Amino acid sequence: MATFIERQEHKLEIIPPFSIIQCRRADIIEKDGVEVGRTYHREVCCPGEDVSECCAELQAVAGALWTPEVIAAYQASVAENTRIQRARNED
User: Fold this and answer.
1) Residue 9 pLDDT grade (very low, low, confident, very high; cuts 50, 70, 90)
2) Is residue 17 reached through a cis peptide bond, with omega within 30 degrees of 0 on the bond before it?
3) Model's pTM, two decimal places?
4) Where does the pLDDT of residue 44 fall: very low under 50, low under 70, confident under 90, or very high at 90 and above?
5) CA–CA separation, 8 vs 75, rounded Å?
6) What's the CA gap between 52 and 36, in Å, rounded?
């Protein structure tokens, strides 16, 4: 009888300057120890977001990189970009 196993692998990428984290998850299906299928899913997490539902690796990296200063700088950048976009739309 064939045995199927499902496992996951994660690849994290850190995007400067605000340490935005991209996580690529691979869902791998194996039959009798041989890979028979693989699908990918991507998630992007920004400083200050809740990552409690993310993989342990991402949680650890976010905890190390997302200092209060990084979160504040990211939020200021988002606010400034929003202000600029609104000003362009008014013209």
Assistant:
1) very high
2) yes
3) 0.83
4) very high
5) 32
6) 31
Q: What is the dihedral of CA 14, 51, 66, 74, to 10 degrees?
A: 80
11: left (phi over 0), alpha (psi -120 to 50) or beta: beta
How many residues are recorded in the chain?
Answer: 91
* Per-domain residue ranges of the chain: 4-90
CA-to-CA distance for 78 and 12, rounded, in angstroms?
A: 23
**Taking Cα atoms as reference points, which of 4, 5, 23, 3 lies closest to residue 13?**
23
Do 55 and 10 meet the contact criterion of CB atoms below 8 Å apart?
Answer: yes
The amino acid occupying position 79 is A
Distance between CA atoms of residues 24 and 63, nearest Å: 18
The enclosing H or E element of 15 equals strand 4-15
